[in-house]
Amino acid sequence: MRALVVEDDAGIASGLEVALKQAGYAVDLCTTRDAAWHALAVEPFDVLLLDLGLPDGEGLDLLARLRRQPAPAPGRNALPRRDMPVLIMTARDGVSDRISGLDGGADDYITKPFDANELLARLRAMLRRAGGRSNPLIEHGELVIDPAAHTVLRAGQPVSLGGKEFALLLTLMQARPQVLSKARLESALYGFGEALESNAIEVYIHHLRRKLGESLIKTVRGVGYFIPREAAEPAASHTGR
């Protein structure tokens, strides 16, 4: 999952970057409204964390511009994504401020100072709603994924995944059965300027198949990867006589 943080306070931005990366997000930081709009126009972010008082204008104006974006043509993806989940984070704690933010198109509103764990919980709830889920766990066949605890069970047994492996699995699960290109998966796992090996996605896919089953992730040659909406039935075991 890739998050864009729009915050001009360097200390807050740095703390958010650390917390989000520890939670498995790829993170990019912007300090101005114009820089944020440029980033949204070139990268497919999954969530936007938005301060209101920015050096070059109001965060609410950026939000309004995002929500006014035209709907994409059928079968096409548009940037910026007008339906992107948005969390406002601000020191403005008046009731009228919260109403303006939520009525202005924000999905949630948190006031500074805030606890990083609460912010992460709010992000998880926003992303569940955006994906049409109410259950905090993601269940797929014999797999049970807990995004909050960063755990995976396969047939009731814990499976150890690295940070990028877990992030890739979560991205594919939340998008299923949509086919995601290698470039889209790279953008979900890596922020601007992060080192990326040319075969990193293929390596992580290989690891996930080895740990979670070869049939979990499908390849569409020349297009990308996907997880089917319905899990394949586990192969039955047979005992010879």
UniProtKB/TrEMBL annotation:
Residue range(s) of DNA binding per entry: 135-229
Gene3D superfamilies: 3.40.50.2300, 6.10.250.690, Winged helix-like DNA-binding domain superfamily/Winged helix DNA-binding domain (1.10.10.10)
Residue intervals of the Response regulatory domain: 2-127
SMART domains for this protein: REC, Trans_reg_C
SUPFAM superfamilies per the UniProt record, alphabetical: CheY-like (SSF52172)
An example Gene Ontology biological process: regulation of DNA-templated transcription
Entry keywords, A to Z: Cytoplasm, DNA-binding, Phosphoprotein, Transcription, Transcription regulation, Two-component regulatory system
GO molecular function terms attached to this record: phosphorelay response regulator activity; transcription cis-regulatory region binding
Cellular location(s): Cytoplasm
Residues where 4-aspartylphosphate is found: 51
Pfam families: Response_reg, Trans_reg_C
InterPro entries associated with the record: CheY-like_superfamily, OmpR/PhoB-type_DNA-bd, Sig_transdc_resp-reg_receiver, WalR-like, WH-like_DNA-bd_sf
Residues annotated as domain OmpR/PhoB-type: 135-229
Entry GO terms, CC: cytosol; protein-DNA complex
PANTHER family: REGULATOR OF RPOS, TRANSCRIPTIONAL REGULATORY PROTEIN QSEB
Protein name: Response regulator transcription factor
